[in-house]
Amino acid sequence: MRLSNVPNSKTDSRMRSRDPRTQDILTRKAIGRGPIIAFVIGLLLLPLLFGSVKITGAHADRTTLPPKLSTLVCVISGEELREMSMDAVVIVEGGKLLAPFKEYDEADQQRFAKEYFREGQKYRLTFGGGEAGVATVQKSGQGCNNIHAKVMVETSAKIHEHVMALATNSESLGRQPSARRAPTDPERAAVMELVKKIYLQRGVTTLLYRSLKVTNLTAIDLDRDGKYEMVGSFTLASKNKFERDLFLIAAPQGARMRADYVGFQAYQPPAEGFLSSIDFVDTLDLDGDGIGEVFAIQGGFDAYGYLIYKKQAGRWHKVYHMIGDAC
Ligand SMILES: [Ca+2]
Ligand SMILES: [Ca+2]
Predict the structure, then answer these.
(1) From ligand 2's centre to the CA of 55, what distance in Å?
(2) Of the bound ligands, which one is closest to the alpha carbon of residue 319?
(3) Residue 153 CA, ligand 2 centroid: distance in Å
(4) Ligand with the closest atom to the CA of 224
(5) In whole angstroms, how large is the CA radius of gyration of the chain?
(6) Structural domain of residue 312, as residue ranges?
(7) pTM for this structure?
C-alpha cells in the first residue's frame, strides 16, 4: 500500500485559506514543495498495515460505472450545497488502501480527474456510515499540489464547518442506516470528564485547562452495537502558544466514557501559527468487518491531509494518510 501524508487546522485564519471547504480550487497556485517533503518524510514512518484485511463488499457496480473504475472514497466539505469541495482520499482495492493519484505529478492527477472528476459524475454521499444523498461533480481544478473537485450536493446531512461527509462511487459501501448525531448532554458531560482527566494526567493545570476549546464532538455508533461512541477534537494553547491537542475516540462504559483512542500532541507551533490538530471527518466501513473506519483531517504547515484509523484486535491504529494539499 502506498501512503503519503497529512494535516489542517481550522483555528488559524491563515490555515483557513488552505482549508478545502473554503478554498477556491481555481485560484490556488502550485508553489514550493520543501515543507511538504519534510512533512511526508515525517509521516512515512507511520505503520501502514492494512493489507491483510479482506475486503468483502467493495466493488463497483458494472451497471452504473465503467468497469475500470476502482472504489474511490472522497471527503465532502463546505457551506453551500450547490458548491462543496470534494477531495479524493483513498482507493480501496483488493484489501488495500491506495493513494488515488501520485503526489506532485500533475499529469497523473489530470489522468485521475478525467476518470473520476468528470462533469456530471455522481457519487453516493454517506454520513455516519450510511446513505445520505448524492454529490454531482461540477468541475475540477489543480490546487497547490493536488487535484480537487467542486460538487453539487443533495443531502439530508447538515454539512458545514467541522461537519464533513464522505462520498463514494461504490454501490456496496455505506449501505447501513446513518448512525451519527450530536451528543446528548449526559454524553457530552461524560466525555468532558474524560478529556479533563487526560489533560490533567499530562501535567496541565486546572487553571490552564479552562482555556480548552472543543473543535467538535460527535456521537457515532462505530461498531453498530446500538451504543454510540464519541469522537472529539480539542485544542489547548498556553500563553506562549505551546499547544496541546487531543483527538479522542471514547466508548461508553455505563454512564461514563472510557478512552478508546487518545491522540495527544504537545508541541510548539511554528511562528506562522499552523496547528497540527486532528479533527474527525466521518466514518465508513471500508473492509466490511462491521466496524467503521474513522476518517480525520489534520493540519500542517500551510497544508492539510487526511488520515484513516482502523480498529484491529481491539485497538485503533492509523492505517493510512495522504496529503489533502500543501502549498
Ligand atoms: Ca457502538
Ligand atoms: Ca472496518
Answers:
(1) 9
(2) 2
(3) 26
(4) 1
(5) 19
(6) 180-326
(7) 0.81
